[in-house]
Design goal:
Length: about 425
Amino acid sequence: MYQWHVSLRIGLVWVVLWALAACVSAPSSDPLGTISEPGVPKQLRSRQIIVALAEKERPRWSAIAQELRSRYRLRSVGEFLLTSIGVQCLVFQVPPDQSLEAVLMQLRADPRIELVQPNQAFEGLQATAYDPMARYAALAYGVKLIGADRAWRISTGRGVSVAVIDTGADIEHPALRSREIETENFVEGGESSFASDRHGTAIAGVINAYVAASAGIEGVAPDATLTVAKACWYADPANAKARCSSWTLAKAIDFAIHGGARVINLSLGGRSDELLARLLAAAEQHGVTVVAATLENQENPGFPASLDSVIPVMACDSDGQVTWPRWRVTPFVLAAPGVEIVVPAPRNRYDLVSGSSLAAAHVTGVVALLLQQRPQLTPKQVKVILQTTAQRLQEPDPASLQVGRVDACAALARQAPQLTCR
């Protein structure tokens, strides 16, 4: 009898221990299945969807959000208002035990919902090649190749507001610190890494750098008014590519539109995105010219470069030559310096970098020069001027894709015949 009681007690202890372990480790302890991604900002985590509610539903926004959470077992992770297109965006995380596509399909059938989509990922389009021994001033060819230095006789971009929607940037770099650059952050916890971000520092430098004694480089529009809006983040500090999301980009674009930007630089690319497409259409309606980098080594130019409302840009080298892309779906693409470009880098350094990101930044600078000269220009007019004054590059089959190297001097000379460009 004694031995039986001992065995029973031991058995009960094991049952209790097993139950406690199960409570700690079982997924059922969280009915909504939170996905843990340590170190990843909440705006870039996986299995997130964005639900947009129309302005007409404003009195019921809160009730609709609560009903959606309950009906589809969704976890609320954020919300934000996009006043430029009049929608309230709700961000939910879909539990791991549910099909993401099935939830999206069900939500798209709800008449109260204006738009629903995944919170998609985008990447900065830049590759870095460090060359600390380079004589950077001798390698800085971009401004001269596109004739921006000649255009400075009548325009330096003064008074033109440019929004760089990218990573953060080291605005205390010697090439940038005198520019009085404004900053905004749209990534959770992004303030701590803002000044150490490489991509945004490079883009800001191409557009706005001041002649630095240590390198002798200058931005295409050195007197433009720059705002760096951080919407992208480095998942891996050793990786040259930064990640952005629909969520962060949407908030940054909406901010730029209402902040009075005349030009938006998007040196990034990804898949088609309905929410961002609506915002970029609104940007055009507000008179904001959008410049976007293309995906040169893919089957399509990527988004947002594929939109008719933006100016798509690819990279050329110091001889003005391009590597022709596989895609032919965009009728005309501007080319600009994007191969081994000298740029400022965090912590008072300089780098040689390549990619269509840098090409887009050169074109953004040219747009700023043009808008100082002719502030009344619409985005469509800016695009036409840059296309018609570009130096055409020839391909064996020129009917398939038209590429022209941007010419800042020729673009400004259309309204200033006294400007000598050759």
